[in-house]
Amino acid sequence: MECEHGYNRFEACSKWNEQCAKPREQRSHWEEACSRSCEQCSQRCEHRYNTNERCSKPCLWRKRSVFPLTNQGKAEGFPSLGKLYPLAVGQGFRLTKVVDGVVLTYDFQPTLMRNWIKVFVLALACFASVDAAKRPNIVLIMADDLGFADLGCYGSEIQTPNLDTLAGEGLRFSQFYNTAKCHSSRVSLLTGLYCDQAGGAMLDRGATIAEVLGQADYFTAMVGKWHLSKEPTDFGFQRYWGHLSGATSFFKGDNTFRFNGEKYEVPETLNGRPFYTTHANGDFALKFLDEATQQKNPFLLYVAFNAPHYPLHAPEADVKKYDGMYDGGWDKLRKTRYAKQLKSGLIPKKFKLSPRPTHVPAWDGLSVKEREWEADRMEVFAAMVDVLDQNVGRIVAKLKEKGVWDNTLFLFCSDNGACPFERTRGRYLKPWDPKSYWTYDASWAHAGNTPFRFYKQNQHEGGISSPLIVHWPKGLETEPGSITRQPGHLIDFMGTFIDVAGAKYPKQIGDRKIDPLMGKSLLPILEGNEREPHENLYFHFGTDRALRQGPWKLVSAKLGRWELYNLGEDRTETQDLAAKNPKRVEAMAKEWFRLAKDVDRLKGRHLNPVKDKLTKLNFRKDTSSGRAQK
Question: How far apart are CA 134 and CA 396, in angstroms?
Fold first, then answer.
């Protein structure tokens, strides 16, 4: 274990930032001037002052509870459970535990040297009696190909009342990042590492959240899309139902479905209704929650919906619910969503709506027949998101029914931005016909990623920006319905879960040597504090790449020339500043290549230099024959 300033547990750190031991409503927080120097910090203090300067910025300090030991080795107010860490020599021991979802810290100081053995024995007894029920349960839900603006609470007209309620009671992130691609986002979510750093789909250098939490006595279960090598039960999940493939028929499934490591034959009906993967994911999530809540230990449930990934399949009644909703087209929809984002405060008014790109046709320029076809397929997409939300509601209801809702850390995100790829087959079949295989293209994806540019696979904001909703009644200290503008990334989930679960990040699992954790805990943000941000956020998929440093972002699409944006002033990436800042471009490009080579271990063509011109993008294909054609 290390303190936030890089000191190990046997060294003294001059800075304290612990939770007070009082209940949340009784905490006494106060501000004081931070006049101490940070010479004991390994590099720089949290306010980014150099180590030889004084930090005069006011900062929030919290009391730490000190329990002096008597000669009998007893401590007044001594907690009965927790985890023990030695302080500096001569200072005693620190005990941390989670109570009602809040991380508390206790310091023990012996009055006499002969009490050291008593302290140690007392702490060991405490460590041995860890009460797992005080640690939060964790439910992590990932949607598939859901755009930034596809939920009601992120600007959409699609009916998502359950997720909207969670957002209204919890916390929304406006700058949360994925990796812009299905499988790479799953690697980062599971391991806290960048995709290739973890060994890609093989997970050769990564430990999963299931393996780490399992070692901390969590019950671990997964439902849904895997899209990596082997099976979830090979990587720490004690229960699993779902498909190993990257895409599947929602009505018929495929031959990759598994149930706890065994082949699963997809039935025609499940629990009294026609098989549909989104409902089935909900069914098995409830089944695993029934198992999890019968045990004393806390649990991790990871639900990876394959909706709204193509093929665009949905039950007929759910599709007809949106009949006529999209007859106005994508240009109008995008403006409507942007206006809703501004009104809610999700997007500041200074961030302008990015223009429609040349590869997306104007809605009014389409024929009547093409407008009907385009509106129809967006109706199906909306129905898929609607049904996903229905099943989120079922999961929430089950958690409440079991009496575990208040101490459940609940998170919802997406693996990438909306998908631009036209791969339609069976255009003239109905979308509730299992033989159909509709998709939509960049035109609706452009609206799905409002107000940003570009899509899935691209490392522009439209490709990597995900909704993130966090709900945790006993642990979340932000105001209900708050929006945080602090950046976060999928790699941060691992560190967050380690913090709240009292788990330990491993150096090796079996024959896998595990890379050092890249992510940083989101817990300070959940507690309502400013988190020390990532120095770099690195992005890569195929020939798309990006690097974010503070507000500055360097990005290239399909090996096109580097573009530079100041996201603090231009989150929608409309003003390219590369020509005005060549030295910054050069320095950030050098850092991207360093991370790509030394950390992410990229080789060959993945390290090719960018071109000196932008690469033209085009996604539009003719489907009038019934299938997509160039």
Answer: 20
The predicted structure's pLDDT at residue 81 = 40
What are the residues whose beta carbons fall under 8 Å from the beta carbon of 472, sequence distance 6 or more?
101, 136, 170, 407, 408, 409, 410, 526
User: Going by C-beta distance under 8 Å and a sequence separation of 6 or more, which residues neighbour residue 42?
Assistant: 5, 6, 7
The whole-angstrom separation of Cα 86 and Cα 8 is 10
pLDDT value at residue 33: 29
pLDDT at 103: 45
Chain position carrying tokens 């603006």:
149
Cβ burial of 122 (10 Å; 0-12, 13-18, 19+) is buried
Nearest Cα neighbor of 45 from 536, 537, 532, 551 is 532
| Burial class, 382, CB count within 10 angstroms (exposed 0-12 / middle 13-18 / buried 19+) | buried
Q: In 461-620, at which residue ranges do the beta strands (DSSP E only) sit?
A: 465-471, 482-484, 488-489, 508-509, 512-513, 537-541, 544-549, 552-556, 563-566
Which amino acid does the sequence have at 41? C
Give the pair of three-digit tokens for residue 507: 């150096």
| Nearest of 490, 496, 492 to residue 475 by alpha carbon | 496
**CA distance linking residue 398 with residue 393, whole number of Å:** 9
**The pair of three-digit structure tokens given for residue 582, joined into one six-digit string:** 């060549």
* pLDDT value of residue 629: 83
Residue 121: per-residue pLDDT = 41
- The answer to whether the bond into 315 is cis (omega within 30° of 0) is no
Question: What's the rounded Cα separation, in Å, for the pair 316 and 311?
Answer: 15
Q: Which residues contact 609 (CB under 8 A, 6 or more apart)?
A: none
Residue that is written with structure tokens 């089935």 in the block:
280
Give the pair of three-digit tokens for residue 589.
């490009």
Q: Is 543 helix (H, G, I), strand (E, B) or coil?
A: coil
Give the count of beta carbons closer than 10 Å to the beta carbon of residue 595.
Answer: 21
d(C-alpha 531, C-alpha 533), whole Å: 6
Quote the Cα angle for 405-409-415, to 5°. 125
| 557 burial level (CB within 10 Å; 0-12, 13-18, 19+) | buried
Is the bond preceding 434 in cis, omega lying within 30 degrees of 0? no
> Facing residues of 65 across strands?
106
Q: What angle do CA 180, 336, 546 make, to 5 degrees?
A: 20
Is the pTM of the predicted complex or chain greater than 0.85? no
Distance of CA 80 to the CA centre of its chain: 34
What are residue 549's DSSP bridge partners? 552
Sequence-ordered list of residues with C-beta below 8 angstroms from that of 565, at least 6 positions apart, any chain = 552, 553, 555, 573, 575, 576, 577
Q: Please identify every stretch of the chain with a pLDDT value under 70, giving residue numbers as ranges.
A: 1-133
Report the C-alpha gap between 467 and 146 in whole angstroms: 9
8 Å CB contact between 205 and 600: no
